[in-house]
Amino acid sequence: MGEETRMQENRMKNSLMDTFESKLMPIAKYISTNKYLMAIRDGFLVSMPLLVVGSIFMLISNFPVQAWINLLSNTNIAGTSISSYFSNITNATFSIMAIFVVIGIGYNYAKEEKVSPIFGAAVAILSWFILMPFTTEYIPEGSSTAIEVASIPLQWVGSKGIFIGIFCAFISVRIYKWVEDKNWTIKMPSGVPPTVGQSFAALFPIAMVIIVFFLIRVLFSLTSWGNAFDFVYKILQMPLQKVGDTLGAMLGIYLFAHILWFFGIHGTNITDSVFRPILYALSAENLAALQAGNPLPHIINSQFQDLFATYGGGGSTLSLLIIMLFFCKSKRIKQLGKLAIVPGIFEINEPIIFGLPIVLNPIMAVPFILTPMVNILISYITMRIGIVPICNGVIMPWTTPPIISGFLSSGWQGAVLQIFLIALGALIYYPFIKVVDKQYLKDESEDSDSGTDDFSLDDLSL
Amino acid sequence: MIKIVALYDQIESGMGTKDDKMLPLGAKKVPIGPGIMMQPYLKQIDAKIVASLYCGTGTYMGNKQRVTEKICEAVNKIHPDVVICGPAFNDKNYAQMCVELTDGIIGTTGIPAVSSMSAENIEVIEKYRDKMYIVKCPKKGQAGLNRSLQNLCYVAKSLAVHDDNTADIKEYCF
Question: Of A44, A175, A227, B74, which residue is 20 to 30 A from A59 by alpha carbon distance?
């Protein structure tokens, strides 16, 4: 009985870790299971490979060797320069990125709500276009007044249209589901093929989406905003981008993500669902500036996060791996280092996180959380004072090895910065992992000293 | 002090990546992987992991009888108060290895054993939940790991001391 009471007391004692976790768990759980945030995160995953391949073409056409650039702009195929052809790829991917995002979010949200994903994507895109002003301002040569030309505006199908697109996807799919749930559909007789039946069944839900968005468009035109796109961009997207592009935001979000990682929760998955759209928009603006030959506006963007904050994966564990491989003596750590180094170079670090382990291992908490913070701080400062160029906005797969990724995004200075940060991170990790190493080494020497042991586990071979 | 033996696969033991399925059967006389994560709770229940056994899931699947024999032999030699197999998270192969070995250990050695995995392993849980205690744990990367490890220790202790108060235990298990 006494034992039970003691155990109960122990359970009620709130260690620091338990308090932390009890506060974090509800937030993490909410974000990771929220339908909307999951749809946003998955929707962006659709556009990611498209943007990566588009970026590769951009990199090729902008490779920083003057002779190459001249070659591309002077060689013509059927009257158009090669560099124009390359910029066509950029136009088909980056300049219209919001189209892919809206399709992706509409599709994934429809899946969450258990309605037809393809029609979900269709109504998302449809409703977005209904609200979009189909004009582009154009100043003809020799004139000083702008005329409005009927067109699908590049202005709104790029990054600026992302946030309004998110709303359109959610609202339109929700309306679609509402109509479908009420069973207001046309039911075809049984002989009709299922795909035809599906098309007809979608008629009423789609009609409702159109009616609602038509009304929204009319309402906005009666306000001083004129249209929903300008409204959402100025009221929501621009301020969020402004906040996101600050050192404080980046530090705060990454601190949160790494504390989550420490508790075994996939921290960046959680923060990405909220932060990634903003980061993408910031990257896209940098890219547009790059293309136009203007100075790059945003230090914080998608690549800044992937390349300079957490190379090697969460906790910037590539630095840790170097110490493990070259400066640690215990067999366990050396073995773990050997098997984790190749995935580590490609930014995958699950073996270290769960195998060392870093998760729930208080001694590793300090360097694990501190190293990315230091990386962010130093990278931001070097870019702020101009000794390292700002990331150019080119999106590359987050598994691109460091040094290569730094070079592609910020030139040789970026590569050097990454080398410097990896080395600095190694210094931060050194004292902590050496303590762990010492303990494991002690365990290993006791293991082989079979003097006082009750049992030997030598004969486990099959 | 309660003596515990833990059993892991190639990933949780830190001996390999998920592709290293053919990791041979081995052991360390210290806590590794999740054993280290559980330290504060082991202290609370006055327990110590005296051996951590590990086996690649491929090694097990290709040689179930022999591996089970060897593990039961080792458990008999060490004679702990309880064996913990897991946490297997949402890894189907490891989960299957856990329950089958738990079953084997309970049946052959008579020493209590407990398993742990996430709800995604539905088939395996349905098949074995009436034969043993399977403590709930989250998917890998999801919230709740800390609490589930604490529960696992609590259930292990109850089994080790042959505590008849099963109400609490059932709350943490499937």
Answer: A44
